[in-house]
């Protein structure tokens, strides 16, 4: 048996229609081969089954003599991320995943088409280390439109593999061992881990419900001669809080007075519902001491593309780029070209995005209230934090495990986002970056099975 597959000449250029047709035909051929090898060559299938069994036995033997896991001391305290744990449990129990913040719907067609075109046009080799010029320009254009600030795309913008890498490059490139960095808890879990890798000393300031306001006096007392930077995230994951103009002004004044840098994670800037997003770099005297971190994934529902960036004045960009060069060096080339197209989307795209997410938010928030949760205000992001204590479980981890196994819905325990887990033991986080049918189904399950 043989199958002939006629490939186009390597000099031909495939358009997106031809590429999709070829992909469908290839899948048919693969399925045909699978069928024929089972019916025509049963000995082949039997052989593969034997190999698989032998591999399983060998694997079992290896596990029985497995050596202890090894990890550097600076990462010993960090376990498998809570997102991985909860997503694995969701799959095991067939639960609806309102835990991890990735959409279950796809990004816009015009952006995906731009990526396909870039691949077909041969934009597939290493990109320039700090970004494809067209994307750097698009980022600068968008930043000017959003903040009024004019930045040099060649000297002040660094494209990274997602915002998580932008965070890592900033920490590793600008923080020295022993430097103090102030975080507002709860915080995105990569912050503490990356600072640990940089050898920093983390100082935590806890934001407490219901408003999660910044405790200004506590912040003032936390700043010392050893404070190198303050890391803020607005709109804020996991609480949905947006830092107010007054809070940002106070932080800015403290940073100028004490010669402290600010690293600001603004990946949810286009998901600001209750107030306008304010970028720290736009405040008087702050651009020169601020690294602004952002990404494509949240705004365009393309989290798997991992396109992020850091915007900073040249004297700070130097450190970011030095670290970036030895982390990933460069980011996916065709996706960068497509990202440039995305950032030049008309204003109507962003208006519609916010409108759609407001509708999703209303479904989830009203549903959670009807179930019996105490729901805290969420001004931005696609997250909502609730108090789970009406349901009688001892802490957030126990509640989330019960919710998955007995109710069939996933939430994230927030204690993992605090330096002191006790501070978050009463809170869990839900996400509404899912289609409306999924959100309604999750609410229905909780109404039916969750009793307080």
Automatic annotation (TrEMBL):
Protein name as annotated: Aminotransferase class I/classII large domain-containing protein
Task: Check the record and name the InterPro entries matching this protein.
Answer: Aminotransferase_I/II_large (IPR004839), Kynurenine-oxoglutarate_AT (IPR051326), PyrdxlP-dep_Trfase (IPR015424), PyrdxlP-dep_Trfase_major (IPR015421), PyrdxlP-dep_Trfase_small (IPR015422)
Known cofactor(s):
pyridoxal 5'-phosphate
- Print the keywords alphabetically: Aminotransferase, Pyridoxal phosphate, Transferase
Q: Which residues form the Aminotransferase class I/classII large domain?
A: 96-445
Provide a GO CC annotation, any one: cytoplasm
This protein's record includes keyword Transferase: yes
Q: Which SUPFAM superfamilies match?
A: PLP-dependent transferases
Task: Say if the entry is tagged with keyword Ligase.
Answer: no
**Which Gene3D superfamilies would you find in this protein's record?**
Aspartate Aminotransferase, domain 1, Type I PLP-dependent aspartate aminotransferase-like (Major domain)
Any Pfam family the entry gives: Aminotran_1_2
Organism, scientific name: Rubus argutus (Southern blackberry)
The Gene Ontology terms for molecular function here are: kynurenine-oxoglutarate transaminase activity; pyridoxal phosphate binding
């Amino acid at each position: 048996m043989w199958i002939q597959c006629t490939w186009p000449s390597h000099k031909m250029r495939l358009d997106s229609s031809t590429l999709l047709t070829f992909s469908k035909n290839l899948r048919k051929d693969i399925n045909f081969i699978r069928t024929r090898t089972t019916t025509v060559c049963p000995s082949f299938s039997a052989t593969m089954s034997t190999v698989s069994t032998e591999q399983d036995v060998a694997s079992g033997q290896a596990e029985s003599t497995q050596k202890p896991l090894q990890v550097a001391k600076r990462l010993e305290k960090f376990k498998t991320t809570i997102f991985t744990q909860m997503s694995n449990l969701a799959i095991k129990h067939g639960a609806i995943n309102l835990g991890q913040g990735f959409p279950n719907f796809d990004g816009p067609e015009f952006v995906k088409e731009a990526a396909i075109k870039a691949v077909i046009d041969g934009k597939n080799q290493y990109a320039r280390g700090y970004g494809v010029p067209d994307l750097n320009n698009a980022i600068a254009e968008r930043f000017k439109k959003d903040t009024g600030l004019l930045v040099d795309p060649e000297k002040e913008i660094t494209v990274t593999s997602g915002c998580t890498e932008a965070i890592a490059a900033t920490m590793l490139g600008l923080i020295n061992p022993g430097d103090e960095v102030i975080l507002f808890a709860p915080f995105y879990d990569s912050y503490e881990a990356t600072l640990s890798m940089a050898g920093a000393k983390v100082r935590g300031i806890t934001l407490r419900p219901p408003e999660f306001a910044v405790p200004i006096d506590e912040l003032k007392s936390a700043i010392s001669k050893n404070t190198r930077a303050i890391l803020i995230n607005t709109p804020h994951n996991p609480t949905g809080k947006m830092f107010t103009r007054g809070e940002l002004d106070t932080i800015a004044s403290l940073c100028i007075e004490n010669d402290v840098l600010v690293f600001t994670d603004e990946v949810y800037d286009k998901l600001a519902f209750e107030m306008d997003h304010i970028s720290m770099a736009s405040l008087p005297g702050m651009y020169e001491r601020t690294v602004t971190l952002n990404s494509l994934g949240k705004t365009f529902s393309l989290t798997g593309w991992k396109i992020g960036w850091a915007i900073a004045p040249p004297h700070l960009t130097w450190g970011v780029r030095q670290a970036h060069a030895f982390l990933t060096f460069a980011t996916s080339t065709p996706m960068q070209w497509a990202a440039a197209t995305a950032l030049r989307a008309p204003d109507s795209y962003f208006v519609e995005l916010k409108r759609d997410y407001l509708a999703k938010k209303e479904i989830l928030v009203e549903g959670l209230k009807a179930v019996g949760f105490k729901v805290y205000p969420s001004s931005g992001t696609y997250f909502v934090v609730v108090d789970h204590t009406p349901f009688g479980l001892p802490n957030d981890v126990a509640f989330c495990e019960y919710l998955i196994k007995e109710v069939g819905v996933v939430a994230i325990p927030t204690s993992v986002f605090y330096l002191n887990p006790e501070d978050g033991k009463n809170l869990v986080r839900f996400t509404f970056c899912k289609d409306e049918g999924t959100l309604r189904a999750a609410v229905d399950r909780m109404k039916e099975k969750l009793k307080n």
